[in-house]
## 1
Amino acid sequence: MNMLTDEWKGQVVVVLGLARSGVAVARLLFHLGAKVTVNDRKPRAESPEAEELEKLGIPVICGGHPADLIHEGVDLLVKNPGISYTAPPVQQALVHRIPVVTEVEIAYRVTASPIIGITGSNGKTTTTTLVGRMLATGGIPSRIAGNIGRALAEVAPEMGSEEWLVAELSSFQLKGVQTFRPRIGALLNIVPAHMDYHGDLIDYIASKEKLFSNQQPSDIAVLNWDSAECHSAAEKVTAQILWFSRREPVASGVYIVDGRVMVRMFGEDAWELMPVSDMHLPGVHQENGLAAVAIALATGCPKEAVRHELATFTGVEHRLEFVGTKRGVRWYNDSKATNAKATIAAVGSFTDPVVLIAGGLDRGVDFKELVPVFQKLKGIVAYGEAAGVLLARAKEAGVRSRLQVQNVEEAVAAATTLVQPGDVALLSPACASWDQHTSFEERGSIFKQAVHTL
């Protein structure tokens, strides 16, 4: 452990929720001398993680929340980010004025590492992954953790002061922080989401903005110039701000102008990083690339490494992932798009003609919300259980080229009859994969293999 602390030694701590982060933070606090009890409402038979903790001597209570779990003698409640603040143990802790935090807060307090925190409604994983690649290529010591890979509480204690901890952070995680201070904090965008958890948009935005609440003037905030919500957040930021924009030049940050990715760091002269045409990230996802550039350069990462990774990065696997160009047609794998909203975002990322491949499990969804975006399509190939209703919506939208096939492999072959050089062929199913596949990953892999064999 690189930053020893006796802050929790002898304290009574309840960890609410097992899963990956719960196990990690329970182990950490136990090794730091806390008296830890873990509680999960799932039955013991559905909680295999419990055995690992019990072998260490940590009590684990499964199958519900005991009435006496939270009492005045409890010093701290660490809850799994996904557990609602309306859960009885959380409500009881708040009544007793017991601090309620998430794993992020604990990880921050035990690490010597400077932290890069990345949040936003969309694009977190893509941006975090790209930053990690840029730093690795540039020889900047770093590790990725949080919603990607290992839990923060598992990684943070291992890291030294010369390593950057690159953390993807959700609003659920950030809502439960108190002193957390990232050296670089990035807010990519804000659109209404998770209202069932936060209750309203105000709480959702406030949770995102907690990323910046403890930053100092020497820290850096990376914000989206093209987002009104980010401008509102900027009014509360005390750190130096680097903006990113697809639309216009910014005083300090990364932006696109005249088909070029330009950089101007804190008042320095602007310089060109690369042509936009060298990027494989499409449409709105270019924002993620610009944010990653700003973050990486702020760490001192060499511009050559930043340029190389931005030019070669094809996206996170199965998330609008660039597969390759075949006979002048660009193929993209967005197999993770298991609902209509995700497919709307994917199609909207392109300005070139799109032939869409969609289909999968029929959950009784009518897909009416897809009609406006279907109006932009050059053609559609539908497969699987939901093919019929998808084609009906495509007909309603006026899509002339409509084909139905049995599976993904046949869909790739059929799509080749509809595309021309300069077009985009996009797998964005709008459906779960379970009618024919065990996962969206399997579906995406089959799609890529079919494209590679064209």
## 2
Amino acid sequence: MAVDLFVIDNSPTTELQGLCEEFNASYFHNPQNPGFGASHNLAVFELTEPNIHLIINPDITFDGNTISQLVGFMNDHPEVACLVPKVVYPDGSLQRLCKLLPSPINLFSRRFASALAERLDEDYELRWFGYDQIVDIPYVSGCFMAVRTEVFRKIGGFDQRFFMYLEDTDLSRRLAQHGRVVFYPDAVVKHTFAKQSYKNRRLLFAHIKSAIQYFNKWGWFFDSERHHRNREAVAKIRAAMLKTKQDNHSTELNT
């Protein structure tokens, strides 16, 4: 399996260039730092042959089979535009990163009204889902995505108005308009999840700015696509869970 490695360096110096050359990685120095999504776009639109590319945060670790698992599934399912693995903390506990498309109250309560968020997150974070089945998800985390390059280019990549935060929410929506966005539990990665915007005021402001940009783009309280996609996803996930339960029960009766 051929792998093209691109490094977009947003730091003020070119210290990483020598290391990239050692690993035959294409190096781009971009000290203006246009943001998470815009930097990814620089690499993806330089790609030539690979039909799948990976978006991976630097605090992600995984074993040697993970990429081949994801690529193999996407090769077998050409209708899949984006595939994401199960994500766990370094201690192995689950990170609930499969979500419904957010409403304004979902996002702002999580930061400023934790008691309300706790109730809303039951559905928003799909806490009743066992993360043990292949299902379509409305909103997947950008910490690790396998994305079909053709579709990514077709939609124009990340929306570069989002410097950081919510760019993966926006990308999930647009990818789903041209293919399936799928959670694949057989592949597992570890993620050191820090929630920096809860600790850093500058990042908090960046998060709020992105939330405002997101809802200005898609709609605040009147977003028919959000309502439709969320209802459809919940219905399909619950149906898949019920079928699995029935199949397991039937197997127990036959043994």
